């Protein structure tokens, strides 16, 4: 048997759990930040425009040598009209046998993308949010909003959760779809007023979150705006906050919030995990997330190993 298995999104979703994922993501982010190519190899993804359809196709290879994982995710992401029923992101993950180079498993990559992104934001909040964090805000109400809500509810004890979406009925739908209590707000300013942790998970290419509205000392996990000319955060926030990223190389070529504001990157989250850079949680902090192939690789191996052990 060299024939790859195919694992559909529902199978992946059943097997992938945040409590398994988070310690492994912390480990791989730390290893990545050591820039030890004997342990981890991960180039910045290559992204190709799909001009006719207002989208992009990204190729995200990674070799996590210390875990024996060879993996590549192919991810398509599109700017959709508000209210479009078409998905904005689609992803497929290929898990290879690193010795032979054959594909051992092909997995739907959507649940992996939702969960690992949210888990990494939660790791940033563990490290950088104010010691006493009572109010969580989520800007956007799509797939990432939901996975972020789930993992933040699992890991933290916020007293209040607020959500904003450009179309208020979408925010209401989001609030109705989750178990806990969520306050629906009608403006971003109102949503983030006095908030301790703010998650931005929109498809916007213009700033939605402005520094003048953000409480000093708050932590922002900024997940959207993954193109060099797209923004979610304004210049004031980028200037006033201490900026953390997942990968310095990726931030320098992909993050409009960093490139266009001229903000300086203070540290990678992996450097904080390694203890080589401090977690300045008393300051206003932004974690600019772009997503990394190593994160998908860790998920794919976890899922495949669990799937095999159930056979
Ligand atoms: N950093 C990372 O690792 C990853 C980042 N992403 C990015 O996260 C963002 C959210 O992804 P999903 O939740 O999967 O998308 P989605 O399509 O499920 O939800 C997008 C949300 O953005 C809102 N939105 C769209 N245009 C907007 C605008 N101009 N202003 C304000 N809100 C707007 C929509 O109403 C919706 O609530 C996207 O930008 C995506 O590319 C996605 C995967 C990984
Ligand atoms: O890391 C990912 O996966 C993605 N990042 C930004 C765009 C959508 C997918």
Question: Can you put this structure into words, describing what you see?
Answer:
With 311 residues, the chain is of the alpha/beta class. Helix content is 36%, strand content 24%. The protein contains eleven helices and 15 strands. It has helices at 9-15, 18-33, 110-128, 143-155, 168-177, 188-192, 235-240, 248-254, 256-261, 269-274, 293-309, and strands at 5-7, 40-41, 46-50, 55-64, 69-78, 89-96, 103-108, 135-139, 160-164, 183-184, 197-200, 219-222, 242-245, 265-268, 285-288. The strands form two sheets. Strands 10-9-8-11-12-15-13-14 form an eight-stranded parallel sheet. A hairpin with a 4-residue loop joins strand 3 (46-50) and strand 4. Helix 2 packs across helix 11. It is globular. The relative contact order is 0.17. The model has no long low-confidence stretch (mean pLDDT 97). Bound molecules: 1,4-dihydronicotinamide adenine dinucleotide (NAI) and ligand LZCNNONV. The ligand O=C(O)C1=NCCCC1 binds at residues 75, 77, 89, 113, 226, 291.
Span of the ends, CA to CA? 15 Å
Structural class, from secondary structure content? alpha/beta
Oligomer: single chain
Q: What is the N-to-C order of secondary-structure elements (H for helix, E for strand)? A: EHHEEEEEEHEHEHEHEEHEHHEHEH
* Helix count, DSSP H or I runs of 4 or more residues: 11
State the strand order across the main sheet: 10-9-8-11-12-15-13-14
Q: Estimate the global geometry from the Cα principal axes.
A: globular
In total, the number of strands is 15
Biggest beta sheet summary: 8 strands, parallel
Integer average pLDDT: 97
Alpha carbon gyration radius:
19 Å
Ligands in the model, by name, code or SMILES, are: 1,4-dihydronicotinamide adenine dinucleotide, the ligand O=C(O)C1=NCCCC1
Query: What percentage of the residues does DSSP assign to strands (E)?
Result: 15-25%
What fraction, in percent, of the residue positions are helical? 25-40%
Q: Spans with pLDDT under 50 lasting ≥5 residues?
A: none
Pfam families: OCD_Mu_crystall
GO biological process, one term: thyroid hormone metabolic process
Family: Belongs to the ornithine cyclodeaminase/mu-crystallin family.
GO molecular function, one term: thyroid hormone binding
């Amino acid at each position: 048997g060299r024939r790859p298995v195919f694992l559909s999104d529902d199978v992946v979703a059943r097997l992938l759990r945040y409590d398994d994922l988070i310690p492994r993501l912390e480990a791989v982010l730390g290893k990545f930040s050591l820039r030890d190519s004997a342990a981890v190899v991960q180039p910045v993804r290559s992204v190709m425009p799909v001009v006719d359809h207002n989208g992009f196709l990204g190729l995200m290879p990674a070799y996590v040598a210390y875990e024996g994982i060879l993996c590549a995710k192919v991810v398509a992401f599109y700017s959709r009209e508000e209210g479009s029923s078409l998905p904005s992101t689609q992803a497929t993950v290929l898990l290879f046998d690193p010795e032979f180079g054959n594909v051992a498993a092909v997995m739907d990559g959507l649940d992996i993308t939702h969960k690992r992104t949210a888990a990494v934001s939660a790791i940033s909040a563990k490290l950088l949010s104010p010691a006493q964090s009572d109010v969580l805000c989520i800007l956007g109400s799509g797939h990432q909003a939901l996975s972020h809500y789930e993992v933040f509810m699992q890991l933290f004890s916020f007293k209040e959760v607020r959500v904003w979406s450009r179309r208020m009925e979408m925010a209401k739908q989001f609030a109705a779809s989750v178990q806990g209590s969520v306050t629906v707000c009608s403006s971003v300013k109102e949503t983030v007023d006095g908030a301790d942790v703010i998650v931005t998970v929109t498809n916007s290419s213009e700033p939605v979150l402005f520094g003048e509205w953000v409480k000093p000392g708050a932590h922002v996990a900024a997940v959207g705006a993954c193109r060099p000319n797209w923004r979610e955060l304004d210049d004031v926030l980028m200037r006033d906050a201490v900026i953390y990223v997942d990968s310095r190389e990726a931030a320098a070529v992909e993050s409009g919030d960093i490139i266009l504001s001229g903000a300086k990157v203070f540290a990678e989250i992996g450097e904080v995990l390694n203890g080589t850079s401090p977690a300045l949680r008393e300051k206003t902090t932004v974690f600019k997330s772009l997503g990394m192939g190593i994160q998908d690789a860790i998920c794919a191996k976890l899922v495949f190993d669990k799937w095999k052990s159930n056979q």
